């Protein structure tokens, strides 16, 4: 990459934040300022930065207030995550950044009622007498997002052979090029099979668009529109929020945390543990009802 690559990639990253995450103008300005400043410190090779380079950045920022350091680190982590998601680099060196002791934000979640509204709107659209190719595609996308926990990038870049009607799982290449098995429900496989009947032929991609595949930005827009039509504030719903819903609802249903870690493709179990917040009440009830001491207490005179 040449010296101008940083500017190009930072701008692409900011465009993604605006389109997919709905980032405010102030957030975009702050992230842009932080990333460009980091790029300048590294002689315009931020996009190619090594672990050692980021260690130097952390040292240069060591005198900053905790809030400023946290913001700069967050901007860089998201930037490197974007580069990995887009296959613009194979590794993510952001673990070398300073980690201020801040409380990790909880993920946005959707209730079971919210999910029912989304699928209710899909059913309504599918019942209309019209050319419903777009609706069949959206139905397959939503079934896979909520039913299998795909990341948006993983989903839009699936090849047309990835989901088979006779195979209850897909092999997916996730972050850092790591492959994992993703469960695919019978319902999702059926939805994909229907989509395959009307999918444009001659493309490598499961969800083709032009000469390539459906973009993450377009997927984001489609999910937002679906949410609005279902009566859910669109700012509450995104492809990643549906992935969160997949995880939280599985955990509520009794899924094992380690199994969930594998399905989501998390390298660290600590990342998966963030979902336990939604299930705390059920776990407390379980302890109160099932722990051996409960029986001992009941036998006391």
Topology, element by element:
Layout: H1 5-20, H2 25-41, H3 51-60, H4 66-85, H5 112-126, H6 133-148, H7 152-156, E1 169-173, E2 179-183, H8 186-198, E3 208-209, E4 212-213, H9 216-229, H10 239-252, H11 257-264, H12 269-272, H13 280-290, H14 292-299
Antiparallel strand pairs: 1-2, 3-4
Strand order within the widest beta sheet = 1-2
H/E topology pattern: HHHHHHHEEHEEHHHHHH
Number of domains: 2
According to CATH, what is the class of the largest domain? Answer: Mainly Alpha
Give the CATH H-level superfamily of the largest domain.
Intergrase catalytic core
In CATH, the topology of the largest domain is named hpI Integrase, Chain A
User: What is the average per-residue confidence, as pLDDT, rounded to a whole number?
Assistant: 83
Q: Which outline best applies?
A: globular
Distance between the termini: 77 Å
- Using the CA coordinates, give the radius of gyration: 22 Å
Low-confidence stretches: none
Q: What is the helix fraction of residues, given as a range?
A: 55-70%
Taking the sheet with the most strands, its summary is:
2 strands, antiparallel
Q: What portion of the residues fall into strands of 2 or more residues?
A: under 5%
Which structural class should the secondary elements be placed in? mainly alpha
Number of helices: 14
How many strands in all? Answer: 4
CATH architecture of the largest domain: Orthogonal Bundle
């Amino acid at each position: 990459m040449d010296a101008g690559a940083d500017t190009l990639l930072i701008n692409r990253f900011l465009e993604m934040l605006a389109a997919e995450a709905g980032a405010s103008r102030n957030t975009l300005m702050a992230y842009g300022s932080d990333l460009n400043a980091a790029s300048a410190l590294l002689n315009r090779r931020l996009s190619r930065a090594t672990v050692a380079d980021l260690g130097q950045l952390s040292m240069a920022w060591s005198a900053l207030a905790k809030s400023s350091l946290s913001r700069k680190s967050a901007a860089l982590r998201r930037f490197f995550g974007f580069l990995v998601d887009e296959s613009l680099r194979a590794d993510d060196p952001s673990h070398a950044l300073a980690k201020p002791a801040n409380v990790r934000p909880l993920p946005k979640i959707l209730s079971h009622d919210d999910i029912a509204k989304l699928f209710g709107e899909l059913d309504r659209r599918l019942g209309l007498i019209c050319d419903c190719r777009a609706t069949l595609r959206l139905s397959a996308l939503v079934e896979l997002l909520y039913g299998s926990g795909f990341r948006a990038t993983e989903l839009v870049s699936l090849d047309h052979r990835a989901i088979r009607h006779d195979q209850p799982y897909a092999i997916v290449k996730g972050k850092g090029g790591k492959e994992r098995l993703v469960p695919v429900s019978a319902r999702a496989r059926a939805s994909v099979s229907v989509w395959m009947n009307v999918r444009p032929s001659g493309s490598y991609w499961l969800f083709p668009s032009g000469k390539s595949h459906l973009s993450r930005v377009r997927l984001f827009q489609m999910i937002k529109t679906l949410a609005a039509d279902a009566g859910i504030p669109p700012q509450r719903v995104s492809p990643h929020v549906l992935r969160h819903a997949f995880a939280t609802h599985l955990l509520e249903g009794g899924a094992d945390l380690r199994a969930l870690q594998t399905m989501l493709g998390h390298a660290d179990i600590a990342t998966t543990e963030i979902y336990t917040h939604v299930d705390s009440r059920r776990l407390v009830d379980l302890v109160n009802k099932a722990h051996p001491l409960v029986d001992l207490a009941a036998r006391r005179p």
